[in-house]
Amino acid sequence: MESRHVFITGGTGYIGRSLIPKLVSRGHTVRALVRPESQVKLPVGATAVSGNALDASSFALRVPPADTFVQLVGVSHPSAAKAEQFRTVDLAAARAGIDAAGQAGVRHFVYVSVAHPAPVMHAFIDARREAEQYLRASGLHFTVLRPWYVLGPGHRWPYLLLPFYAICGRLGRTRESALRLGLLSLNHMTAALLWAVENPSREPRALGVSEIRAITRPAAV
Known about the structure:
By secondary structure, this protein is α/β, with parallel strands linked by helices. It has one domain (5-151, 184-215): NAD(P)-binding Rossmann-like Domain (Rossmann fold, 3-Layer(aba) Sandwich), CATH 3.40.50.720. 38% of the residues lie in helices and 17% in strands. It has 7 helices and 9 strands, in the order E-H-E-E-E-H-E-H-E-E-H-H-E-H-E-H. A 7-stranded parallel sheet has the order 3-2-1-4-5-6-9, with helices on both faces. Strands 7-8 form a two-stranded parallel sheet. Helix 1 (16-25) packs across helix 6 (186-198) and helix 2 (83-104) runs parallel beside helix 3. It is globular, with a radius of gyration of 17 Å. It starts with a strand and ends in a 6-residue tail after the last helix. The relative contact order is 0.14.
């Protein structure tokens, strides 16, 4: 396995704190963009890079020699009440990350988007889809992951919906939506991101819930 030089944004967040130790344990070099006040939250093994995730000029020169860029910045606990933040934070950070990666000559960009279409969370989906379009137009080689909800510490209430998902998954008219908007565990997402880093794509690649489950089958739900 070839070791990667990984630059990550959102490394102190829900998924980032799970991913970084896995990357480090497998021999990858990890540098993470953080605000000075958040450095204490950065997992051991990653090198902190100070900067503003919403402003590419504040960190673009610090991206090299990374060959892989992982974009994880996003509003925590998304809800309909945070529609404006999805554009001012999620979308703005994605654009900044894409711009910085392009300037740095990064070979592979990994972006966590969201499953779509869906009957709810339209503002969140619109911001993530717009970021995907910006990424596609950038000319970068990329992998997009499209989870719906990621179960884990502090994110467990949707376990109550598992019986509902089981029923919808058996009905013809709802099966496709139940699969596309299925629940994933934090272990699934961490394993999928690790797989994406270690298996860069030379073509545009998007992985939905079913594809993420398929490549991370050993991961616990």
